[in-house]
Amino acid sequence: MSIYVDGTTRLLVQGITGREGTFHTGHMVEYGTNVVAGVTPGKGGQRVHGVPVYDTVAEAVAETDANCSLIYVPARFCADAVLESADAGIPLVITITEQVPVHDMIRVTTALQARGTTMIGPNCPGLISPGSAKVGIIPGSICTPGPVGLVSRSGTLTYEVLFALTTRGIGQTTAVGIGGDPVQGTKFIDVLAAFEADPATKAIVMIGEIGGSDEEAAAAYVAEHVGKPVIGFVAGQTAPAGKQMGHAGAIISGGSGTAAGKIAAFENAGISVARHPDEIAELVAERLGAG
Amino acid sequence: MSIYVDGTTRLLVQGITGREGTFHTGHMVEYGTNVVAGVTPGKGGQRVHGVPVYDTVAEAVAETDANCSLIYVPARFCADAVLESADAGIPLVITITEQVPVHDMIRVTTALQARGTTMIGPNCPGLISPGSAKVGIIPGSICTPGPVGLVSRSGTLTYEVLFALTTRGIGQTTAVGIGGDPVQGTKFIDVLAAFEADPATKAIVMIGEIGGSDEEAAAAYVAEHVGKPVIGFVAGQTAPAGKQMGHAGAIISGGSGTAAGKIAAFENAGISVARHPDEIAELVAERLGAG
Amino acid sequence: MNLYEYQAKQLFGLHGIPIKEGRVARTAAEARDIASSLGGPVVVKAQVHTGGRGKAGGVKLASGSDEAESIAAKILGMDIKGHRVGQVLVDPAVDIDSEFYLACVLDRGARRILIMASGEGGVDIEQVAAETPERITSVHVDPGLGLQSYQARRLAYGVLHALPDARRPAFAAVLRDFQHVVAQLYETCVEEDATLAEINPLVITTDGQMLALDGKVTIDDSALFRQQELASLRDAGVETGAERQAREAGLSYVDLDGSIGCLVNGAGLAMATMDVIKFFGGEPANFLDIGGGAQADKVAEALRIILADARVNSVLINIFGGITRGDEVARGILAALEQLDTDVPFVVRIEGTNAEEGRAILADAAMNTATTLAEGAQLAIRLADERKQGQSQEVVA
Amino acid sequence: MNLYEYQAKQLFGLHGIPIKEGRVARTAAEARDIASSLGGPVVVKAQVHTGGRGKAGGVKLASGSDEAESIAAKILGMDIKGHRVGQVLVDPAVDIDSEFYLACVLDRGARRILIMASGEGGVDIEQVAAETPERITSVHVDPGLGLQSYQARRLAYGVLHALPDARRPAFAAVLRDFQHVVAQLYETCVEEDATLAEINPLVITTDGQMLALDGKVTIDDSALFRQQELASLRDAGVETGAERQAREAGLSYVDLDGSIGCLVNGAGLAMATMDVIKFFGGEPANFLDIGGGAQADKVAEALRIILADARVNSVLINIFGGITRGDEVARGILAALEQLDTDVPFVVRIEGTNAEEGRAILADAAMNTATTLAEGAQLAIRLADERKQGQSQEVVA
Q1: Alpha-carbon span C239 to C234, nearest angstrom
Q2: How confident is the model at residue C235 (pLDDT cuts 50, 70, 90)?
Q3: Nearest CA of chain A to the CA of C159: how many Å?
Q4: What pLDDT digit, counting tens, does each position of B124-175 carry?
Q5: Which of A137, A114, A97, A29 is CA-nearest to residue A248?
Q6: Considering the domain A11-120 in this protein, what is its CATH number?
């Protein structure tokens, strides 16, 4: 079992003919993901790794019944691409593109609410349900099927943790990167709810970072609604205030958004907090053993 | 029983201090409608027919728990007034104002969908559930409680028919004027569905007019979803093509929207069609007797 | 409010849609001057608010200014489907490679603007919709988001893929220009409060340019308060005198051919009143809706307009008060009768808000009254017939 | 990207928000000239990207140009919370009746712009929110609709009703002006791609005018591609040389005080790498995120920036490839090492996409490698310590 994507996922890749789109489509096809279509305006009729390319998402959906879209287009075209998929009736859109303007995402997330489309991202690594579908850029080689659900604001830190889990022999139901931007399509609590509802998921790893208050909201949600063991980590414990650490979202401002505050919220909610990433797998093993 | 408004309706009047707002508030209070608040910016603290006036809808709702709003503000402020009520959480907004720009109503109806607020109007006479609540300008004196539901695109033609029904001793559950504009918050089919679901309504009168294709859509709906007897009339059988007959919506253009087409659609759906307004009450009596 | 072709195209031009630089002429001499300043062959086009100009001989090619003058002389004053031609547009002639259709139109059912595009240009789009709907591509625009690039692309590729192979290269070469025109036409529609903004045909010229060759725009009358410049474009020429007078008084009035004047509040009731008159064998002289909440002066003005029509042999006043009040209407009737010396008989029916007060005010004026619409209509028909016969007898006597 | 007060207020002025006509000076003489051209008393205000200027002595009233010059001389060059004052704003002095707070701020949780207003102006709004939240009125703006009039009214009446009786008349008199400022501030926020647009204080002067007296604006860096004019306002002065160099190379870099240089892909992993170094007793010299999909030249530039910092005694390269590929990173490392002659030891850890290829490329370069982050961090700490000791010994020797 898994959340969001599995063997029934019929993936469409927007920006498939670009450098990254082509490269990662290859990896997804190789992993076994059912990539049914690609879209690049003006490149309709081409093929990339055997996947047919269309000029518009509407055509691609009409021809292939795609039910999930993955976005690699440049930042300035990103909002348009997300809305194109939503309007074509695609219920799940994964947005890898980074440096997307915040006001674009304000418009898009509001529009998606009315359309019932879920967006994950932007500025995220996508997600993977090991053994059945990889949608995005998380390396398949570091994952293996198993009982742990993982959700993270960070990309490469997620890989780090997946690698440690897999190395220890602990597999995953699904790993979801929600992205590090200030305005995200999907938040921690959405993914926590999905993991809580997924019978195959026996423990949940949540990787936060400094900035905003989503970790605090997630902690409150865990305390009230999540019965499964949750293991947490917060990156940026040593980050200075007022300096943006990479992500537009990762900044301690006005005394809020600190790692200390988030860690305290996690602990108050009964979440096991790792002191550094290498400890996460250890804590997962403990909680799984206990559970 | 009735639809949309009844004894639990707590009415707020936007534009209550204007000439029409004040006049009709008096009639509604006299009729027994529970008018709990009025709103006119800058006139907060005043009273109109004993009804307290507030500067904003948010304040009025906080103080009075109003659950229905009636709009008399001038056309250029109408969109803002509807959205103000919707944002304050009011689930039903009745818009009397006429000559509201079409593009304003395009924006507003889309926004209301996302907020779950129902708008009736604009350019409508409102509605009345005889004996319990009058919301708008339909004269209470011409109505009486009873088994007939009435829905109409026209204002005064509605009064004509209500008067005829009442004179004949046939009462009404609710009479709803949906307005004659091209873009309406509520359409025939919405009201037909509500009447079909209302156990007290035993027969339905539907008064259409030339222009658009809502009567045709309603006829298809009746054929498929309405079990109760429906009596119909279409105004404008003698209207020339290409000339706008009062309402912005009442125009035969490009050969579509004719009375003949609508009457045919009604007849095909099993709706009893009156040849002129005075026949309507007669047909209702027949169908009620038969039913 | 409908705009003339030349006004529609000026609007397109203001919004960045490519148009030809022609100008409008009211005389043949003006047409000559314009043709000569443009140079080369021109097209002289009748400016009227109706379709089918071409078939009626209202659009002609002229090789130069001499011919432009003689053609304009023929077209000016021409009657096209009841519309007198008062002005012609003189546009540079264009070599057309292919024709397309593009329009933003209010979709009442969807409550949104629908953008339709087709490779079948220069023909009646309703016919295309009926016969070959697969040749029309359309998108609805979310008013909160506005037109998105993907929607313009979808229209562009939709048109492209529906074209026969031979026509594809020419359109493929201007795919981006087409998307630009789509965006600018939608901008026109929203910013000018249009309920219709149509380019038909939108052409590709033989030298590969996109061009709006003919256009039709309908402006929402309710929005004219914020479109002052457009309001000033209203062309009084197509209205009858009575229609203009009524519009200026805030009345909704349409001239008809019968003998029974109608004064009614509400469009639906006004139409039903016409219907009933016809049903009982009479002929309405007009549609007249005094609107909601009309006060006495408006009612008086309405009566003046009706009585100015010599064909009117009786007047049926049908008022069912809601926002309109019976007493106000009654006062308006008395005010009008004080000023106008008329022997045209009146049938008055007032019900609803303040109806009793209204009837009381009229009680002394010794008017014919009716309680139902059917009764009122039949009475008005009889009175009109009697007056007509009386007049004939007078003439005979 | 944060704007200075004077830039923020210029932006407000462009969007129709009333501001004073002061100008910015980089020398005391310039301050004198501005004060003398303005006439009358002025306020000299340090322009720095930090709060608490007033307490730090960075804002002073001057009675005329002489005093403006002497005050500017004192303020220029002053250090306020680690920020050197390079410029002062010289504004005409204003007689203040009362102060208000108004801001448009990104509400990450709601995914919308939140507009907050309060009668408590000129103070820290977070303190007001904590202690007297009833004195703050706020509305969220639907991006599809934009700010509606009722929302501006709601803010206006919310502020009015929360004011003590004595302050109400002055605010009631400018209620419409306030609503206008709300609308224009929201316009500023959206059109300039701001995530914060704050006026604090927004004042009513003793002669009843509304005025934005101080302002703070943060522009979304991701939107600078469409805000070219704003991008040019970026003040290089507040960045260190390395930070500017990194930004220009498209790297995300923050200078820190430690001895271990970090080169990481991904913000989260970069922060975690810092955290781990600190956890094991080391001190990171920087935060450096090469971003997703970095190619060899970017990696090489990143190494150049790190090695230019003399405090760096070891470098920890931690790459977990996703969109970034291990082989590209490895090529970048080799390219940098070819150009730079350095004895700083490297610890390299590469996992994920094309990690094996990357490790193969580096195999010949005889580098320290690690398999886990903890192992890599501990090794980098040890190597840095050794090198530091070695250098000390060299110095001693």
Answers
A1: 10
A2: low
A3: 12
A4: 999 999 999 999 999 999 999 999 999 999 988 999 999 999 999 999 999 9
A5: A97
A6: 3.40.50.720
pLDDT in tens, D234-272: 765 556 778 888 888 889 999 898 999 999 998 999 999
- Six-digit token string for C351: 């019900």
Q: Does domain D21-92 have CATH number 1.10.287.3510?
A: no
Helix (H) or strand (E) holding A31: helix A19-31
Q: How many CB atoms lie within 10 A of CB B123?
A: 29
Amino acid A86: pLDDT? 98
Q: Give A66-95 pLDDT, tens digit per residue.
A: 999 999 999 999 999 999 999 999 999 999
Sheet strand arrangement including A230-235? A133-136, A126-129, A172-177, A145-152, A203-209, A230-235, A272-273
Q: In terms of DSSP bridges, do strands C260-264 and C314-321 run parallel, antiparallel, or are they unpaired?
A: parallel
Cα atoms in the Cβ-side hemisphere of radius 13 Å centred on C127 = 5
Cβ neighbour number for residue A52 with a 10 Å cutoff: 18
Q: Are A35 and A51 in contact (CB under 8 A)?
A: yes
Strand B92-95 vs strand B118-120: parallel, antiparallel, or unpaired? parallel
d(CA D394, CA D218): 48
ipTM score of complex: 0.93
| Residue A142 phi, psi dihedral angles, 5° rounding | -95, 5
d(CA A290, CA A270): 14
Exactly one of B24, B49, B247, B276 is catalytic; which is it?
B247
pTM summary value: 0.93
Q: How far apart are CA A155 and CA D265, in angstroms?
A: 9
What CA–CA distance (Å, rounded) separates B73 from D72? 55
Distance of CA A23 to the CA centre of its chain: 19
User: Which residue intervals of chain C bear CATH 3.30.470.20?
Assistant: 96-231
Distance (Å) from the alpha carbon of D145 to chain C's nearest alpha carbon: 6
Contact B80 D148 (CB under 8 A): yes
Could you tell me the residue ranges of all domains in chain B? 11-120, 138-290
Domain with CATH 3.30.1490.20 in chain C: 21-92
Tell me the C-alpha distance between D245 and D301, whole Å. Answer: 9
Q: Fold identical between B11-120 and B138-290?
A: yes
Count of residues in chain A? 291
- The count of residues in chain B is 291
Rounded Cα distance between A263 and D122, Å, is 33
Which token pair is A215?
Answer: 């970790």
Yes or no, beta carbons of A83 and C150 under 8 Å apart: yes
Residue C313 CA to residue C285 CA, distance in Å, equals 9
Touching check for B109 and chain C: CB below 8 Å?
A: yes
Residue D52: how many other CB atoms lie within 10 Å: 11
- Per DSSP bridges, beta strands C42-46 and C59-62 are antiparallel
Name the residue type at position C189: C
Copy the structure tokens of residue D275: 């955290």
Selection from B172, B37, B157, D208 nearest residue C270 by Cα: B157
The rounded distance, in Å, linking the Cα atoms of B135 and B131 is 12
The strand ranges marked E within C193-282 are 194-205, 210-212, 215-219, 252-255, 260-264
Quickly name the fold that domain D240-396 has. Rossmann fold (3.40.50)
* Partner-chain residue, chosen from D142, D150, D161, that has the shortest CB–CB distance to B84: D150
The CATH number of D96-231, from 3.30.470.20, 3.40.50.360, 1.10.10.10, 3.40.1360.10, is 3.30.470.20
Give bridge partners of residue D199 from the DSSP assignment.
D102, D215
Fold of B138-290: Rossmann fold (3.40.50)
Summarize pLDDT for B173-216 with one digit per residue, the tens.
Answer: 999 999 999 999 999 999 999 999 999 999 999 999 999 999 99
Confidence tier at D125 by pLDDT (50, 70, 90): confident
B window 3-22, beta carbon within 8 A of A? none
Q: What are phi and psi of C76, to 5 degrees?
A: -60, 130
